[in-house]
Amino acid sequence: MRVLLLGATGNVGSRLLPALLAHSHTVTVLVRSESKLRSLIPSPLLSKVSIVTGDASSSSTIAETLKTYACNALINAAGQASVLPFQAPKMQHIIRAVAQGCLDSGLRIRAWFLGGMTVLDYPSFPGTRIARYFPLFVEHEQTFSYLSSLPPPPPTSSSKEAGLEWSIFCPSVMNPKNKSIPEEVPERGNPLLAQKDTPAGFAGWGVDWIPGLGP
Q1: pLDDT of residue 199
Q2: CB contact at 8 A, 204 and 124
Q3: Distance CA 106, CA 108 (A)
Q4: Cα separation of 119 and 127, whole Å?
Q5: Strands (E), 47-141
Q6: Cα angle 4, 47, 187; round to 5
Q7: Which of the residues 24, 74, 151, 206 has an alpha carbon 20 to 30 A from that of 183?
Q8: Interior/surface letters 155-178, b for 16+ CB within 10 angstroms, e for the rest
Q9: What is the rounded distance in angstroms from the CA atom of residue 168 to the CA atom of residue 140?
Q10: Distance separating alpha carbons of residues 64 and 73, to the nearest angstrom
């Protein structure tokens, strides 16, 4: 795929870059600071990607970059969600700009947005979010609600028609295997496909046994 990666200088995005290259994807990165990117990512890896300097909160920049590099996929790892529920949202302007940029590009885009574990369902309670019992990073709920409100893309059989098909990647704590980014990454032939509405291996906190807390 031809992927536009946002947030390549962040903790997750900087690890996604070599992973995308290892899976033989064609990568374009949009960053605010090219010098910061070059200070984090080894030159041998950057020689394999296209670098665009711009703002991820600009829908016109997103649309133009997607068209210029004929991208058919996008990964948004830009922005950082508010931690506490009473804090003002920190990344919704980016989410909305990215989604609108995809729609304005006139292309069919497969997009992944970085979210958080609390957006997932509580085990054995379909439709009940973990955020109900663990109200941290609840801004990701706003991301889910906004993306759900967008018009659905055309059917798969009409894959050449413009539209946005999206998913939210919902990790918990992620610790990098290595402190630095390797200069070379071995090719990986196995595609990684995952779809889960509840955290894998998550047993819950037993709130379903407490009257008034269970759904």
Answers
A1: 66
A2: yes
A3: 7
A4: 10
A5: 50-53, 73-76, 108-114, 121-122, 125-129
A6: 75
A7: 74
A8: eeeeeeeebbebebbbeeeeeeee
A9: 9
A10: 14
| pLDDT tens digits for range 90-120 | 899 999 999 999 999 999 999 999 988 888 8
d(CA 47, CA 143): 33
Can you give the length of the chain in residues? Answer: 215
pLDDT lower than 70: segments of the chain: 156-160, 189-215
Q: Say if CB 121 and CB 174 are below 8 A apart.
A: no
Element (H, E) at 4: strand 2-6
* Distances 150 to 103, 153, 177 between C-alpha atoms, Å: 10, 9, 36
Distance CA 96, CA 112 (A): 13
Query: How far apart, in whole angstroms, are the C-alpha atoms of residue 38 and residue 51?
Result: 10
The CA-atom distances, in angstroms, between 199 and each of 15, 66, 105, 113 are 21, 32, 33, 17
